[in-house]
Amino acid sequence: SAVISQKPSRDICQRGTSLTIQCQVDSQVTMMFWYRQQPGQSLTLIATANQGSEATYESGFVIDKFPISRPNLTFSTLTVSNLSPEDSSIYLCSGGDSTGELFFGEGSRLTVL
Amino acid sequence: DAKTTQPPSMDCAEGRAANLPCNHSTISGNEYVYWYRQIHSQGPQYIIHGLKNNETNEMASLIITEDRKSSTLILPHATLRDTAVYYCIVRVANTNAGKSTFGDGTTLTVKP
Prior knowledge:
heterodimer; A: mainly beta; 7-stranded mixed sheet; 11 strands; globular; B: mainly beta; 5-stranded mixed sheet; 4-stranded antiparallel sheet; 9 strands
């Protein structure tokens, strides 16, 4: 299975600031995705990170709030901007390989005060 | 992706088989059934997937009905470490799509 590494694993931020989460995947991965998991909830797809171009966002998520970069095949960042307490969640990076299989990182737990 | 329906919670005695059902009545012919689980505070972990034949691996067995409208994940000898939220997902495989729609899953509690 693919190895997905995320950092930070957790952070506490003040409202109005931003947090950038990094995700490193191994070479098996061709597709990269970002999910959000709010407390006690299931996973919700934020966007597909596209290499060298703008991410593809799902309904309800916008680039100004969740800018995503993917400068190369194995690295992506998600920034959560202008933080509010409602952004307190676990943010998960995932990678898909050429067969469509999906692997997940351990997540980044964000608490906004 | 087709929608799935799972019971919100189930209990199982340690050492017994855990049978987790999933309904996916709107599944398309090219959609596979995938199972993942999420142990508390960890990322989701792949368990097994199948198209129409029953599948078995070192973790679990997957039984898919002939009409493909439902399936059952079987953990043959549940342990306390199998306590987790189990997600059933249907999606196209063998493409670079890969993104998945997660429902609410089933919280399985394995009891001593």
